[in-house]
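re: that chain from earlier
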Amino acid sequence: MKLSGLVISLISASTTVMARSAVYMMSSNEQPLGLVDNKPTISLDAYSMVMSQLTDTADTHPVMHWKDAYQQQTFESARGVWNNRDAWLHHDQDDVFTSKLDSILYVMVSGVEKPEEIFGEPTFYVTENHGHAYKDLGNDNIKSVSESGRRAEKLSRESSSGEDYTEKFQQEYGNVFDLSKKPEKSFAKEIMNFKNILTEAKSNGFSTIRVKGLKTFAKEYGVKSTQYTEGERILNELFEKTVIPEFLDGENRRALVSIVFTPPKHAVFRKRALPEDEGTCYKTEEACINGTSSCSDRGSCVITENECYSCQCKSTSYQGDSCQIENVVGDFQLLFWTGIGLIIVTVGSLMFVYNNGGGSDSDGIMMVPQSLPKQD
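^ sequence. v structure.
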């Protein structure tokens, strides 16, 4: 029982460490990344609080209505980032009646395995790793900024004109992808459309956009595939050469770019229920091996009835689409009920002995008298 409890605690602790997203905050083209020495890891609510402070909407933030204990915890977490703002907020705040920033671009990039390889060291980390949570945060900021009288909107990942950017993509980045395939074509259109909407974003008080092409590559081909590696390179070039410099550029312009990189998979440990999804469909064995890290070295990639490759785990105790979850419930149940059985047997035995041999005048076990000594 103690061993199972230890295993559960270790797994829970390890998933807590892995389950975080990297956040980058930039407000100057001269700003080098990674200036914060002790990069804090904060909650999603604390990050939301930091964003509301930047958009001058902190007074209407829901944290003001939370219970004192959690409210104080959120304030303390957000303060850890805000106190280091000199490393990433390069705009003087001389007039308290003037908005801190003219414009904020909030970018969510899903499916990033190693953010540091794309963009260097982050400004801080956030414990939440689900993309939809950051999408909700963006929508909340759009609402609060709009209610304050400034323009805020969610930018579309697809071109509203329906223009096909694939040819322009090849001219700029080369023939790195087979654009006849849907994942590659979708990624190319997403990248080129992003570049074309920067002017629109600069005129807004707050803008959000979500990039999902890298997540699609991770799902279809794996994080070690050529497509995924090239996607990382192109994103790095997109942000460093286009998005950040163009959005921040402008005389006396007070702007900030906040980029969130969320991981391709969510670390989940289930104590009871087994995974209900049917797993990821990989088109080739190589994609399956790359996408699952060889089934976490706990199985092998085999072809299924629907002509997809998926992991076949070595043991039923391994679960998940890449055998990444070790089910310790069976061992726990065995140890638990074995322990209960031993307790019942032991207590029953003690009660039997007590009831049958502990009484003075009660009916119990007949005591055989000792034989009298012989007399001459």
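The longest helix spans residues 329-357.
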